[in-house]
Amino acid sequence: MPKPIVCLSEVLRQFLEAFRPCFRRRQWKYFVTVLLGLIEQEGRSTLTGFQACIGEPISLSGLSRFLGRWPWSPRQVAATWLTRFREQMEPRVQAEHRRLRAQRPKRRGRPRKTVVTGFLILDDSVCAKPKGRKMGGLGWHDSGTEKRVVRGHCLFTGLYVLLGRRCPLEPRLYRQRAVCEREGVPFRSKVDLAVETIEQFQPVPGTHTHLLVDAWYHCKRVRKAARRRKWDCSGGLKSNRKMRIIQALQCPLCLPGSLHGPGRLQAQGP
Q: What element of type H or E holds 18?
């Protein structure tokens, strides 16, 4: 069948070649098949759908073994993507600094430093598995898409956005405490995963990082972890959270010590 123009582009070919060291020669064609299937498939992303829309002599059992049994490392794939992203964005960040310095108004005194901000977004996604029986990590999770509690997997995900370009981080499986006890693995909450990501993530040099989270992750531990990295942090607030001002700022329109002026807030909660 004819391929879309995006599948024949030089940019996509270069992107695929960056991940060739992550796979063996036999595994490489299945990686390309899955990626093209994700591009071409308009409905649900299933192995049968990938096989039908690609039109290449790829066996269904081979696709299943590639995703479920063959020894390749998703962590290596994610690290390769992030390394490639950093190498491509470093010269763009320096060019953006030069552009900001050229547009900076001339004033007396020491000029202000230019700031290029990257956004680290943390969230989780529920993948319903109504027919799953023998899969590991299955639990009951609240799905925002289906507006109910479903049986399936919960993936903790991260996305790094810088100068209009995006780089996903390695997704990690979140298991509930009862599931961990049943499978014999240590329990790690979503907040634990978020704090670990904040502590280990390395942004592109020359940038300032702004952490974005939703109300589920907005708590004292996450804000303290971001503050230790000297990052900014923004997120939603649940109705059961209490806030207090930790550093009042002087405002010429307000009385000294008044809470009317702006200040930095700290979330209280688990």
A: none
Rounded Cα gap, residues 260 and 248, in angstroms: 10
The length of the chain in residues reads 270
SS3 53: helix
From CA 240, how far away is CA 269, in angstroms rounded?
8
CATH architecture group of domain 75-101+115-236: 2-Layer Sandwich (3.30)
Radius of gyration of the chain (CA): 23
DSSP-H helix ranges across 124-218: 177-183, 190-200
What whole-number distance in Å separates Cα of residue 215 and Cα of residue 270?
12
DSSP one-letter code for 151: E
Domain positions in the chain: 5-72, 75-101+115-236, 240-270
Where does the pLDDT of residue 131 fall: very low under 50, low under 70, confident under 90, or very high at 90 and above? confident
pLDDT at 255: 45
- pTM for this prediction: 0.79
What is the rounded distance in angstroms from the CA atom of residue 22 to the CA atom of residue 74? 9
Average pLDDT for residues 25-53, to the nearest whole number? 76
**DSSP state letters, 132-149:** -SS-TT-EEEEETTTTEE
Tens digit of each residue's pLDDT (9 = 90 or more) over 148-174: 888 888 889 999 999 999 999 998 988
Q: Quick one: how far is CA 88 from the chain centroid?
A: 18
Contacts of 161 (CB under 8 A, 6+ apart): 118, 119, 121, 167
pLDDT at position 169 is 92
